[in-house]
Please model this.
Amino acid sequence: MNKLIRDGKVAILYSPGYGAGWYTWNKKFPELIFDPGIVDLVEHNKFDELKTYVTLKYPEIFTGGMDDLKVDWLPVGIDFRITEFDGNEIIETKDEVDWIIA
Model:
């Protein structure tokens, strides 16, 4: 899976807006979190080009949340998850979550 890495950090795509999640509504496509082409378009606010890129590369995904995409940078190798409520996605790293062991 291609990932964009800069200064020891990986670009993570997520959709913090309410309505529909980017990754959480497309969990069969984990590459949507990391796609360097999408990261570049989002970073440069080229959302018209993003729609074309996504439609051609991932014709089978639900594109809700695409207009709210943001890029966050996490250290290479860190455990994380993307959760959502009403489509509002958040990134949680393993060290931020209080795990309970049974």
Observations:
- The mean pLDDT is 93.
- The longest strand covers residues 9-14.
